[in-house]
C-alpha cells in the first residue's frame, strides 16, 4: 500500500516537529522559569538589601534618638536648697565658690549668738564651703581684754542642707567635712589672764588658700573636722529655733578654744 507510506513519513516529520516544538517550548519554559527565578531572586535580593538597609538606617536613627534621650536624661537638674547654720560666733557660706550668705550680726557684737538660713540653687554634685570665726579681740586670741571677763573664746558650728521641694535633708555637718585652721591663738594658754596679752600671747596664722571655696579645689591635705558634743559647745541664742536632723553634729577644729578661724568643706553628691 504505497499510498500510506508518504503519509506515514509525513506523520513522522510531524511528530519530529512536534517533538522539536516541544523541546523549544520546554527550552523556552525553562528559560522563562530561569528568567523568572533569576528575576525573583534579584528582586528578592534587592528587596532584602533594601529592607536590611532600611532596618539599619532605622536602627541607627533609633540608637541616635536613644543616645539623645539618655543625654537629655543625664543633664544636671538644678534644684533649690536651704542651708541652716548656727555658729559661735560668725559664719559665711559659699556654694561652688559663690557666696550665698553670711552672718547678719557683726562678729564684733558682744555675745553674737544667732542662727541663719540661706537659700540657693545648685545641681548635684555641689560643694559647700564655710568660713567660721570665733570672736577674738586681737591676734592674741583673747576677748574682753582688760575686763573682768577677759578670757579665751570657744567656737563651734552646726549646719544642715535641705532640698526645698522635697523637705529631705541632703547634708549635715559631721567629721566627713574637711577642715583647715587658719588662725590659732593663744598657743601658750597660760597668757590668758595677762594684763597685756598682745605682748605675751603667741599665735599662728596660715594664709587662706586661693580658691579654697571652689568645687575643684584640692583639699586632700586638710584634716577631718572634729565633732563636738552640745555640752562642750554650749549653744546659745538661735540654736533652738531650728529643728535639727538627728545626724547633724557640732564641728570645729581639734581645739575649741585655740582654733579661732576655720575653713570647712563638704561635697554633696545627692
What fraction of residues sit in β-strands? 25-35%
Fill in the CATH topology of the largest domain.
Jelly Rolls
Q: Sheet bearing the most strands, described?
A: 7 strands, antiparallel
Any idea of the CATH class of the largest domain?
A: Mainly Beta
How many domains is the backbone divided into? 2
Task: Evaluate the radius of gyration.
Answer: 44 Å
- How far apart are the first and last residues' alpha carbons, in Å? 117 Å
Helix-and-strand structural type: alpha+beta
Organism: Ilumatobacter fluminis
Keywords: Signal
Signal peptide: 1-27
Protein name: PEBP family protein
Keywords:
270 residues, alpha+beta, Jelly Rolls, 2 domains, seven-stranded antiparallel beta sheet, four-stranded antiparallel beta sheet, 15 strands, globular, signal, PEBP family protein
